[in-house]
Write a structure and sequence with these properties.
By secondary structure, the protein is mostly helical. 78% of the residues lie in helices and 0% in strands. It has one domain. Helix 1 packs antiparallel against helix 7 and helix 3 packs parallel to helix 5. The longest helix is centred in the C-terminal third of the chain and has 31 residues. The radius of gyration is 17 Å and the shape is globular.
Length: 197
Amino acid sequence: MREYIGLAAGLIGVVGYVPYVRDIVRGKARPDRASWFIWSLQYVLLFCTQIAGHAVGTLWLPGLQLLGVLVVAGLAVRYGMGTLNRRTLLLIGGVAVALGLWYVTKNATVALCISLGIEAVGVLLTAYKAFKDPASETLTMWSCVALGALLDTAAVHGGGSRALYIYPVALALMNGAVVVAQLAGRKVSARRGLATV
């Protein structure tokens, strides 16, 4: 049963990428190149840490997320905004440090926590952009991933590591933060529009 819940969580999460990809190609959504490039590297690490933590049903969400992230990162090269800069290189270095610590400590949870910290920085950048320019992001994508992540917590099986809960809970909170930032940005924009009428 947990495998089916995990599959449903992964499918819900990846379905959100469909309107996001559509909006990117149409020029409506403009993904931050640096964030998506970092997430590409980081999701490879996340997927591997889930395997190392003996994930079973919960592998669908990070696996399908990795697929979606790679597609968006590829599209961001042409349609995105932002460039590789010092901040990006530092975050990429953080992913390398997480891999190194995992290798040295043999502890996937350490790598997972560092990786999620790096993801949180990228999410903050995207949340700020979504607040300042709400039209630059697709609300459906962030909402679907948050919902899929919440559902994925039910797919964690008792025989695996308790650390397997860290990823879906953190993913739900981070994607929820982008949703909240975008909705708040829409309210602020609407107020400003009324003020200029």
